[in-house]
Each structure stands twice: as C-alpha cells, then as structure tokens.
C-alpha cells in the first residue's frame, strides 16, 4: 500500500528532475546538488553501519559511508550495501530517494559535459545555410546586438569555462527576453540563431594551423564566407586581443570584418605592425560609455542651467548662468567625457551671447595625457574652455581646490580607472555637497562611471538622490544596449545596421516632412569606410537624433507643438554651435572648403557668418529633431 511518505518522496524526486532540466546549463546548481546528496548519503550509510554488531571505530564508519555515497553517483549494478537488520520501510524509502537523486545528478552532469558538444556537431552536420554573423564568446554586449539581428544567420560560440553571466545571456537570446526590461521579443525572430559549444578559447599558439579545428568546430569553416562578420566583445580586452590574433592567423579570415572591443591604447600598440590592412573594426569601450551618457537627456550640461522664459512664461530656448564642470580622471573615458561636455555645453543666453563654460580636468598623470589629446584636437586646446591640473585624488591640493570650487561647479564627471573608487568618490562628494554647498543640490550633477552596478550600489545611489530631493548622482557605463555609428561597418544590411541608424532614419524622415527636402542617409560600409561627406552626414544625423530629447531641457522640460520665432532662432543657434564644437572636438578646423582628409569644415564659425540657406537648414533640423523626439 502506498504511504504518504512514498508519495511525498516521489513528488520531490519529480520536482528535482524538473529542476535539473531547467538549470542544465548552469554547472553550479549540479555541483551544489551533488554535494547535498553526497552529505545525505553519507549520513544514511553512517546511521546503518552504526547498527552493525562487529566493532568499528567512527573513522571506519565515516570512510565506508563516504565511499559508498560516492558509489551512488556511479551505479554499477549493485543497488546498495546495508546491514540486514536495517530493513525498516521509512529508511529504505529515504535511501532510494537519495540514490535516485544521485543517479539523476550524475546523468545531468554527463549531459552537461558532453551533450552540448554532441548537439553542436549534430547541428553542423545537417546544416545548409552559411552564417553572416559569428559571435565568439557571449555576454551582455553581444546579447543586445544578437537579439536585434533579423533575417540573417547567426552563430553564438560559447566555451565551457565561461561564466554563468554568459550562459544567462545565451538563454536571454534564445528566449527573447531582456533581464532588465522583461520585454518579450518576437519568438520567430530568434529562429536564425544557432548556439555552438567549442572546446577551448582561442589563443595564437593553439590556432596556428586551423582556428576552427582548435575550437573543435572544424565543420564550421564550410559555413563561413567573405561576407561573414566576427564579433569579439568580451569585457576582458586581453582575451579579445588573443582571440583576434588567433583569427588573423588564419589567412582565410584576414579580409573578413572582425568587430573587436579594445581600448585605443591597445589598438595603437598593434595597428601599424599587425592589424593594418585587415578587416578589423575597433569598438572603443569608452566611446560606448559616453554615448550612453549622451543619450540620457538628464545628463546633458543644459540640464543644470535654468531655461529662460519671456514675459508670458514661454521658454525662449535660451538659458541663464554659467557652466562650470570638473572631470576627474583623464584616461580614455575621461577624454571622451571631456569632448561630450565641450560639445554639449553649447547654449545661448537671451541676449544671443554664448554660454560661458569652463571645464577643469584633474589627473595625476595629466602631462602625459594632455599632449596627444591637444595634438588630435588643436582647436579645443585654444578655445580657453579647458584647464588642466596635475592633481590626483590622493593629493591634499585636489581636495582644497574641490572645496573652493564646489559652490560654482554645476557638473562633476568621475571617470577614473577603478569603478569602485569612482562610486566611493562620488558618494563622498555628494555627502559634502549636501552639507556645505550654499545653494544645495540645485543645478548640480555628478556623473560617475560605474559598470556592473550591483543591486546594493543602485540602492545606495537611489538613497543619496532621495536625500537630495532630486536626481543628482547618475551612474553610466553599462552600455550593452548602445548602438553607435562605429558599428555601421558590416557589408550586410542587417538588424545591427538598421538599429544603429534607426534614430537617424526617423530624424531624416522628420526632416523631409518639415523642409520638403529629402535627406540622403548612406550607411553602407563603403560610404562609411571612405572619408566622405556621406560618413560625416550620417554621424551628424545620429548625433542630432541622440540629442533630440535633451532639446526639451532648453524648452523648459517639455516639447511644445510649435516654437516661437525667438525660441526657434535660439535653439538653432545652439545647435549650430554644438555642431561646430562637435567638429572641433573631432579634430576639425575652419576652412572655406570642406576637406575630410585634412579635417577642415566651413561651419566652424559664428551664426552670423552662415549663409541664410545654412541657417534655414539648422532651423529645419531643430523642427525635425523636436518632431522625431515627440513622435508626432
């Protein structure tokens, strides 16, 4: 007769089988389950052996129990070894529950170790279509890109030693669910994705003969052609470099587009000797981080300014006050943030004058950093907006100057190399400003680079902002969802390309409606690679589209249905000034003739020096930006 205990144990065993199936890609759960079962089996055997008649010490009992508990995972035909006196029903039911759980666990482990590779080989043997995109390694960066590729074949190559974060990313892609937003994507859109499990990571030494054989994916080479793009987007840039060199050691792949995430200094080290004349396209983490900052309207310098209004309370498109910023840390990200602040601090006062702006840059290694920066952007150095100081956060001089300037500072950007130090410093400055700043948290913003922000860190930032009564501290750097013009390089017109240009495309459509003139957006790879005006126009459309939401700040926080003549003129002036600073920050100088090779442009000038046609272009672009931002 079936007892309640038997029913309960059967249900628990069934639930455990389901649990193992649902977590089959996560080895940590199998390890923990095996440990729990081993402990339970040892306890059961020890209890049984303690009832035996012949003398044996506790160590002997423990040793026999552990050995037999291990044996449960490697079932060889003998069910169990128990004393004849211990045949109680409850004991045997519990024993068999533990025994079958051990068998399930060992089976799951075997499938986890060998099943993935078997499925990969099976999938490649019966495959017919070629891959257009191959992602080597999987993480949050890759996840956001893969989920937006539609209509082209994608291969995700994963390695058994990678972290559970990568496994989660693969599951998110397959399921089509975003962890942060829990947004459901079209399930049919993921049918183009194949998950392939490789034997080991790529290194140059191991792949000197055949890169695919090294990964245990020899048949993969039959599904690769010249149009296949590879992606190396790991957070570990040294690993990206190893894998890049391994790919380039295969002569068949030197002409393929290889997107690789690497810092600029790493690129500079290898570009002249190894990477030149290859299909390598570099994605700079600092650029992606600052694009995320740029796409958040509340992070724009204009946010810390007070919009002007006319006598009837309508926004004039101008601002009051000054812009005084401090950049702490002038490495790769700090330099990109400085360009961002330099560009977006462009605004107009009500009288038409340019907003006074000053940016203090502090870094203990400033002498070795500012030279190349000023050489690449000579007109920025001569603008009088930027001032350098060679003080680190460990220096007493740093804190003295910070205290002296804190009342006048509107914006502090912290971008040192250590994320934990960034957040610690931001919290320290926030506490001091809350207590000592004369005008409180008004017109004040702290932007801190903090990737991989943990839940307790997000809670800490939220508590500080709650104390301040407004959003003062903003973390940026988790850029897995950011698409930039730098990613428009693949020969294929895939979802990556269309996603990157979608904002620019909407802006181009809005511009055509507003002005009656068609805006040509040529985003194919040849136009991008050639230093042509088409590339500049595409960059500018994307830059304007990202900036569209922040224009609302100049207009009092809302996007009006129609602008007054004064507001339109002021915002158009601001946009022209921002465009000129954008060019300057990217190394352009003024010349009557535009030249992409020499980086000269005629629009680096004052508003009054533009032709009426060019002024009208900026007015139409402002109307289009507002139309695109409002979705009307």
Account of the 3D structure:
The chain has 632 residues and is an alpha/beta fold. 48% of the residues lie in helices and 11% in strands. It has helices spanning 4-22, 27-49, 58-73, 89-125, 140-146, 164-175, 211-214, 237-248, 264-275, 285-294, 332-344, 366-376, 378-381, 396-405, 419-436, 455-468, 495-500, 502-515, 525-529, 533-547, 551-554, 565-585, 612-630; strands at residues 133-136, 154-158, 193-197, 229-232, 258-261, 280-283, 306-309, 315-320, 323-328, 357-362, 386-389, 411-414, 445-449, 473-476, 589-590, 600-601. The strands form four sheets. It has a six-stranded parallel beta sheet with strand order 3-2-1-4-5-6. A six-stranded parallel beta sheet has the order 11-10-9-12-13-14, sandwiched between helices. Strand 9, helix 11 and strand 10 (357-362) form a beta-alpha-beta unit. Helix 5 runs parallel beside helix 6, helix 18 packs across helix 20 (533-547) and helix 18 crosses helix 23 (612-630). It is elongated, with a radius of gyration of 31 Å. It starts with a helix and ends with a helix.
Notable characteristics:
six-stranded parallel sheet; alpha/beta; 632 residues; 16 strands
What does the secondary structure layout of this molecule look like, with pairings?
Layout: H1 4-22, H2 27-49, H3 58-73, H4 89-125, E1 133-136, H5 140-146, E2 154-158, H6 164-175, E3 193-197, H7 211-214, E4 229-232, H8 237-248, E5 258-261, H9 264-275, E6 280-283, H10 285-294, E7 306-309, E8 315-320, E9 323-328, H11 332-344, E10 357-362, H12 366-376, H13 378-381, E11 386-389, H14 396-405, E12 411-414, H15 419-436, E13 445-449, H16 455-468, E14 473-476, H17 495-500, H18 502-515, H19 525-529, H20 533-547, H21 551-554, H22 565-585, E15 589-590, E16 600-601, H23 612-630
């Amino acid at each position: 007769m079936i007892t309640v205990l038997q029913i309960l144990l059967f249900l628990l065993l069934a639930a455990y089988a389901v649990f193992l199936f649902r977590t089959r890609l996560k080895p940590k759960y199998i390890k923990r389950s095996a440990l729990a079962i081993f402990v339970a089996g040892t306890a059961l055997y020890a209890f049984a052996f303690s009832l035996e008649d012949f003398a044996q010490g506790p160590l002997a009992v423990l040793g026999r129990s552990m050995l037999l508990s291990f044996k449960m995972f490697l079932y060889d035909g003998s069910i169990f070894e128990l004393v004849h006196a211990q045949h109680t029903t409850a004991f045997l039911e519990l024993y068999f529950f533990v025994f079958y759980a051990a068998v399930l666990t060992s089976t799951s482990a075997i499938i986890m170790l060998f099943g993935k590779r078997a499925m990969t080989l099976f999938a490649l043997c019966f495959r017919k279509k070629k891959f257009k995109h191959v992602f080597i390694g999987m993480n949050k960066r890759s996840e956001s890109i893969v989920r937006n590729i539609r209509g082209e074949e994608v291969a995700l190559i994963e390695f058994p030693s990678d972290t559970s974060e990568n496994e989660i990313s693969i599951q998110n892609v397959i399921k089509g669910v975003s962890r942060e937003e829990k947004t459901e994507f079209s399930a049919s859109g993921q049918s183009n994705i194949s998950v392939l499990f490789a034997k080991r990571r790529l290194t140059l030494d191991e792949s000197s003969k055949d890169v695919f054989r090294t990964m245990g994916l020899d048949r993969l080479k039959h599904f690769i052609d010249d149009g296949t793009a590879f992606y190396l987007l790991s957070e570990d840039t040294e690993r990206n470099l190893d894998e890049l060199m391994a790919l380039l050691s295969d002569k068949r792949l030197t002409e393929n587009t290889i997107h690789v995430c690497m810092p600029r200094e790493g690129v500079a080290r290898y570009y002249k000797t190894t990477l030149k004349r290859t299909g390598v396209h570099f994605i700079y983490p600092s650029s992606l981080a600052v694009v995320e900052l740029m796409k958040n309207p509340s992070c724009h310098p204009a946010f810390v300014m007070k919009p002007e209004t006319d006598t009837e309370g309508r926004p004039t498109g101008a601002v009051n006050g000054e812009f005084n910023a401090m950049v702490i840390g002038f490495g790769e990200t700090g330099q990109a943030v400085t360009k961002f602040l330099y560009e977006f601090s462009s605004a107009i006062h009500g009288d038409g004058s340019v907003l006074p702006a000053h940016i203090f840059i502090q870094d203990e290694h400033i002498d070795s950093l500012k030279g190349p920066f000023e050489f690449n952007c000579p007109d920025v150095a001569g603008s009088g907006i930027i001032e350098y100081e060679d003080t680190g956060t460990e220096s007493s001089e740093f804190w003295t100057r910070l205290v002296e300037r804190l009342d006048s500072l509107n914006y502090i950007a912290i971008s040192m190399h250590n994320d934990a130090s960034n957040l610690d410093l931001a919290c320290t400055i926030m506490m001091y400003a809350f207590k000592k700043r004369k005008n409180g948290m008004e017109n004040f913003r702290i932007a801190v680079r903090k990737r991989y922000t943990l839940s307790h860190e997000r809670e800490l930032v939220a508590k500080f902002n709650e104390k301040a009564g407004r959003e003062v501290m903003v973390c940026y750097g988790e850029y897995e969802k950011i698409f930039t013009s730098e990613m428009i390089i693949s020969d294929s017109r895939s979802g990556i390309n269309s996603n990157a240009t979608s904002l620019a495309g909407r802006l181009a459509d809005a511009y055509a409606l507003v002005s009656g003139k068609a805006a040509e957006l040529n985003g194919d790879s040849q136009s991008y690679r050639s230093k042509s005006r088409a590339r500049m126009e595409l960059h500018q459309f994307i830059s304007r589209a990202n900036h569209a939401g922040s224009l609302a700040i100049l207009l009092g926080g809302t996007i009006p249905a129609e602008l007054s003549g004064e507001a339109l003129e002021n915002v158009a002036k601001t946009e022209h000034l921002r465009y000129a600073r954008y060019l300057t920050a990217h190394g352009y100088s003024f010349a009557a003739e535009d030249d992409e090779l020499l980086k000269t442009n005629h629009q680096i000038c004052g508003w009054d020096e533009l032709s009426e046609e060019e002024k009208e272009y900026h007015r139409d672009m402002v109307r289009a930006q507002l139309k695109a931002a409002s979705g009307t």
